[in-house]
Amino acid sequence: MSEITSITTEGVLTLSLNRPKKMNALTRAMYGHLAQSLNSAATEAEIKAVVLTSEGEHFTAGNDITDFMDNPPTDESSEVAKFLGAILEFPKPLLAAVKGNAVGIGTTMLLHCDVVVASPTAKFSMPFASLGLVPEAGSSFLFPALVGYQRAAKIFMTGESFDAKQAFEMGLIAAIDVDALDAATTIAHQIAEQPPHAIMNTKALLKARNHDSLSAVMKAEFELFALALQSDEAAQAFMKFMAKKGR
């Protein structure tokens, strides 16, 4: 079975992370599949909105550490870079339904979504520095703009997690619902019923102010992230993480 499943219903494409036994940790292949799906959806007239969700109890544990250590994404032709480009440039409404852990990219990708609904079980974290890395997906630009510099710095520099209530208060999510997927899908269908060009133009206007700056920051983040991945500091942090995980 595919580790990314997709279904289209009445103009809404739902992409689901489907690796529950690994807490939906993302591999290069999964990033590539997501990028391809988003790029295709961008050009398919019948798709009016996309919902990102997951199977199992968690949204995603973030990057698959073993996969990253074996195949570090160090250039812009990598699947990770393609996914980041796809999510930055996606012209249609992008929604997410989050439950359980949303680690690293599991949180940062939400900053690109137009509407996020989270379950009360949702737990968000961006422990990049703890792994010897730097923020990615434009989060060093978008998160401080959302929550303020000092709050963002504290979260990034300590690696601390925060819950759905805190995420709602921050503005990272639009709503909390016991059935996050049903709630997000309902909103997606409401959007899909609107005039599509008006919706896309509205999104373009909402995103226009930050687009060029965000694109530049994402490029810088990726370059620093790639360098950090190859550092002794990150290798030691990864080994410490894996040893702790294996206990």
Topology overview:
Layout: E1 4-9, E2 12-17, H1 28-43, E3 49-54, H2 65-70, H3 79-89, E4 94-98, E5 101-103, H4 105-108, E6 115-118, E7 123-125, H5 139-147, H6 149-158, E8 161-163, H7 164-170, E9 175-176, H8 180-192, H9 196-229, H10 232-245
Parallel strand pairs: 2-3, 3-4, 4-6, 5-7, 6-9
Antiparallel strand pairs: 1-2, 7-8
Helix pairs in contact: 1-3, 5-6, 5-9
Shape: globular
Helix count from the secondary structure assignment:
10
The overall number of domains is 1
Biggest sheet overview: 6 strands, mixed
> In the CATH hierarchy, what is the class?
Alpha Beta
Strand order of the largest sheet: 1-2-3-4-6-9
SSE run:
EEHEHHEEHEEHHEHEHHH
Beta-strand residue fraction = 15-25%
CATH architecture: Alpha-Beta Complex
Helicity level: 40-55%
Q: CATH H-level name... which superfamily?
A: 2-enoyl-CoA Hydratase, Chain A, domain 1
Poorly predicted regions are none
Looking at CATH, which topology would you report? 2-enoyl-CoA Hydratase, Chain A, domain 1
Number of strands: 9
The average pLDDT score comes to 93
The chain-level structural class is: alpha/beta
Compute the CA-based radius of gyration.
17 Å
N-end to C-end Cα span: 30 Å
Description:
The protein is an alpha/beta fold and 247 residues long. It has a single domain (4-181), classed as 2-enoyl-CoA Hydratase, Chain A, domain 1 (Alpha-Beta Complex). It has helices at 28-43, 65-70, 79-89, 105-108, 139-147, 149-158, 164-170, 180-192, 196-229, 232-245, and strands at residues 4-9, 12-17, 49-54, 94-98, 101-103, 115-118, 123-125, 161-163, 175-176. Strand 1 (4-9) and strand 2 form a beta hairpin. Helix 1 (28-43) runs parallel beside helix 3 and helix 5 packs across helix 6. The longest helix has 34 residues, at 196-229. The model has no long low-confidence stretch (mean pLDDT 93).
